[in-house]
TrEMBL record:
Gene3D superfamilies named in the record: Aldehyde Dehydrogenase, Chain A, domain 1, Aldehyde Dehydrogenase, Chain A, domain 2
SUPFAM superfamilies: ALDH-like (SSF53720)
Swiss-Prot/TrEMBL keywords: Oxidoreductase
Ranges of residues in domain Aldehyde dehydrogenase: 22-482
Protein's name according to its UniProt entry: NAD-dependent succinate-semialdehyde dehydrogenase
Family, as annotated: Belongs to the aldehyde dehydrogenase family.
Signal peptide: none
Residues at the catalytic site: E259
Entry superkingdom: Bacteria
Keyword Transcription: no
InterPro entries reported in the protein's UniProt record: Ald_DH/histidinol_DH, Ald_DH_C, Ald_DH_CS_CYS, Ald_DH_CS_GLU, Ald_DH_N, Aldehyde_DH_dom, Aldehyde_DH_Superfamily, Succ_semiAld_DH
Cross-referenced NCBIfam families: SSADH (TIGR01780)
Cross-referenced PANTHER family: SUCCINATE-SEMIALDEHYDE DEHYDROGENASE, MITOCHONDRIAL
Amino acid sequence: MSILNLKDQSLLRTQSYINGEWLDADSGKTFAVTDPSNGREIAQVADLGAAETRRAIEVADQAMQGWKKKTAKERSVILRKWFDLMMENQDDLAIIMTAEQGKVFAESKGEVAYGASFVEWFAEEAKRVYGDVIPNTTADRRSIVIKQPIGVVAAVTPWNFPNAMITRKAAPALAVGCAIVLKPAAETPLSALALAELADRAGIPAGLFNVVAGTAAPEIGAELTSNPIVKKFTFTGSTPIGKLLMQQCAQTVKRTSMELGGNAPVLVFEDADLDKAVAGAISAKYRNAGQTCICANRIIVQDTVYDAFVEKFTAAVNKFSLGNGFDSATTIGPLITAKAAANVHALVVDAQAKGASVTTGGQIDTLGEAFYQPTVLAHLSNNMRIAKEEIFGPVAPVFKFSTEDEAIAMANDTEFGLASYIFTKDISRVWRVSEAIDYGMVGVNEVAISSEVIPFGGVKESGQGREGSKYGLDDYLEIKYICMGDI
């Protein structure tokens, strides 16, 4: 009997999905998926390994031979059904997500809609994959360029956005004629398996969307990166793991796209609307309990408004309500594991030991080992771990700067370059700073910068490639040049 109050209990799947069939592990092994808010077991899920992954890759290769021959419109119609089913089952998908990931239910519903938007977008965008006719070099030749699906795609996705990180990889792959083999995070496989159930109902042919759930990440990953049938590997996760996967993919020269770690700065200049800057920084920092790659990791405020900002910011943080994501009064849920909370606390302890002051929070909460109090740190210095490392929790360090040049230097003093945010009323400064900071995305007086229509991605060690937007199809397509002679 399921412990989740779903309208459609058949969305709670515990087997993996390969070639249109629901399968147990060859070994018969399972692993537990638990609710991070209370540690309660939600389900036992089939624990697959390399052998099953290899079979998924092989059937994907066979399945896409017919799929890629369909017209873009034929593929689009099927993907549109998948989108419709996701939205029709939004509440159930959100319940599954909150149960296994911990985020507030309203945020989970928002993520389902966000995830579905990629399916809708790429269902339409696939109809606009255009080629080129190149001007002649000689009178008797014609040169044309066409675009074709790259081949079988392997995807490894994280636990912090267990729906949207899947659809923004799977949707473009399927839209252009590829097949995909997905390895979801072991902490949150149920959301992926629910998507597979809906893909099946939508009529996506067997073998095109395969979900391999398992705890043996190195074993499954090694198969995905080494198998020569796989032509494209896409990953969202930490920079160290991304680097390892890129090394492994190099052996078969796969195309890779990597959405890796971040260290997002929020630059607040003295001419900014302070109330809007506080509200923006709050939203950027504490969404999903601070567990997003584009979260505000460093709030960098001009010295003339620093004290006022910290006071207003702390007052706003004190209004948060920590608790179970299903409680309507909750505004911040637990972290994914007790270990994650302990890691966040270690950063706070290090900062305090080096002179930082805690204006609110600063402790693992009595609600449970995975709950970390919404925290604000002031009076920080660059020798603290929190200045360099991705926090991935509800802790906001507020740094101080004096000049625009200093702010730019502080923002760029990191190996990461994913998202960044600027608050200022000076349009000249907007241009100067936006161009000077080394980030793939810049929000100006705005932090809600992500949607299906924008190119999401970073520079430096935050990754390569772009997801979403018209550019999001490029990584799933090969460019073929055809020269026609004797015309």
